[in-house]
Amino acid sequence: MIEVHGVTKTFGDFTAVKGLTFSAGQGEVVGMLGENGAGKTTTLRMISTVLKPTQGSITVGGMDAVRQAEEVRKKVGILFGGETGLYDRLTARENIRYFGKLYGLEQQVIAARTESLAKRFDMTRYLDKRVGGFSKGMKQKVAIARSLIHDPSVVLFDEPTSGLDITSANVIRQLLGEFKQEGRTVIFSSHIMSEVERLCDRVVILHRGELQYNGTLDALYEQSGSNDLDRIFMEMVGEGQ
Hints:
The protein has helices spanning 40-47, 69-75, 92-102, 107-120, 136-148, 166-181, 193-199, 217-224, 229-237; strands spanning 2-11, 14-24, 29-33, 55-60, 63-64, 76-80, 154-158, 185-189, 202-207, 210-216. The chain is of the alpha/beta class. It has a single domain, classed as Rossmann fold (3-Layer(aba) Sandwich). The longest helix has 16 residues, at 166-181.
């Protein structure tokens, strides 16, 4: 579903991602690990068409993320942990509706999906309240609903549980498991190794923009001679901490 091949991204003299190649298949959950500044967010932004690769290619569902960016965006739902992208003066429903219109959905479709998502994430009681007064967990749920309003087949989550309380974080983790059951392709970045171990089919480990590992956790444990993901991660990228 997602193919990243030889991708490099530079910003002036700085290389954020260098020669990155990996893939994520349908119904697969891929965890992206790396220290701050490793290139995780830049990679997800390129897959979502927010950024263009300097070199290399990215395809989503067989479509080129640069030449067919508009079509790719219809397939992708994206959430950045520190950026909900919500409008505080609008209600949760109005925020979701606005993004549904951006995707060209009909009003009846938006209304039905909004109600369904509100029930799924237990948002019904505050669906018609302005998001400016919401807790971070409540905003995160609305942001997720907004990212799913067009029923994307690909989901990209960047640090989705960052800063959330235990209850809200568990909702996100359960959701990622449901995405897999629904056959969606999921890539999410995280610093919480326990949720990576629990949810991921494969992991991609980056360090200073370069690929350090791409494969299953079982293969990584065998290769490293350890089942301690924290320790393995630190051995791979520790010098950059």
